[in-house]
Amino acid sequence: MRTITSRADAFDRALTQIKAVEVRPEFELDEAPAPSRLAPSAVALTIEMADPDDASASGRFVLLHDPDGVDEWEGSFRAVVFVRAALEADLVDDPLLHDVGLSWVTESISGAGAHVTQLGGTVTRTSGRSFGTMVDRPSDGFVEIRASWTPVEDEEGAAVDSMSAHVTAWLALIAQTAGLPPLPHGVTHVGARRRNRS
Question: Which is more confidently placed, 92 or 54?
């Protein structure tokens, strides 16, 4: 007999699924204070490069949940992601960067096997160019990607995917934006690595 998870239990199940997500060794992941006014339940994760001298990429994932559903979301869950990464020199002035950033979002979602609706967001480029006595320095810059989507739900109001697929999509987006190679073997779990706080 099939067990139907109630909407009230859905967020607890989502948290369990999130804790099982695998994290690349290049990253350090931590739980952060979640927004309290956007939905009755929320969880937030932040991620940075594990090497403290490497600030080339960082990000944030927020999962919002309203058991009554939200019309604008077209569901009861909403994933909100942010990614910031240093740009390689050949991408700083690339006119197609915004389109490429959008493709990174959609490819990461598809590659994680996540089913989403109401996808939206922005791709922003910031760049600097030296002049005068520093004109020989290469241009530098960052790309920031903000996106949000609603995990598709079934007729009972349960997400059709494990919520881990949506976190995996965010992690893949960070890796892609940071220019990292495909995920290697030997990864750890979200619940197993935490940043040491002083």
Answer: 54
